[in-house]
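Sorry to interrupt, but I need a hand with the structure work. Can you supply me with one protein entry, sequence and fold together? No commentary is needed, just the two lines. Leave the record below and I will have a look.
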Amino acid sequence: MPDRSRDRSRSPRRAAGATETCCALEACRDAHRWAAYECHFSKTTFKTEASQVRTRVIACHGQCRTFILCEKGQVPKSIQKAKDRKELVLAAMTVRMNPYRHYSKMWAQVLHMSAWEERQGHGSKLVSAVEELLRQEGVDVIVSYPAPTQQAESFWNKMGYRGQDPSLLPDEELIPRCRGGPLWPEQSLSGEPLERWEKRLAACAQQPREEVTRTRPGGDGRRYREFVWRPKDLRKRLASEVTMSALQLQKLMSSPVRRRMRGKQPPLVAEGSIAQVL
């Protein structure tokens, strides 16, 4: 008879217990960024847009920030070793930060998400850590364009992302970049537009933006006006301060609420209690 015993090697509880050796942090050094770039570039999906990935990850252009998941004590230190893939990261995630046009908070868009070894729980750990770190900086919505594969859609669905109608974002935030807006729509390799999935990270009152923001020509043919944000508008902490220790990550992944909500839309979190799980 076939063995019908349950395979517990990838159970959420065991995965949570295994996070004690992993830490998450923002790529604040060149060695971190090159290791993240090599992790992204190892995936066939991103090989066709290598120049864009390099610009976003290495140069941090386009309001991008990159986060990495590493084994404790094995954070990349050498640029050359990172380029030669002798110092690796477990997973890497690059997001674009978008301050709201009329409010003081931010929303984020996932541009690249990669793990060296898939189906090991590394991607889930990094996404969970990045969501919490961004939530602490005032990000209330995060957007992703899953690849049109069962594996990718299953992963993002498991993490609580859904197609939202109506969108969780205001109309002015849904203007594509080609028309001077902040949204970067994604396409499949065949050129078909991908569906936008969204997730709310926190429920908080939107405070009107008091500062006057500058604009510049942008979009296709520079026929539109796009907003120019100052560095302090794109982050609340220095990159070197955006970290999550192995113990904090273990507590986050082993949270009873997170296990119970696995595969469901997560509960809204009030702004004043966003760090209680840590």
Observations:
- Confidence is low (pLDDT under 50) at residues 4-19, 266-278.
- The first strand starts at residue 22 and ends at 26.
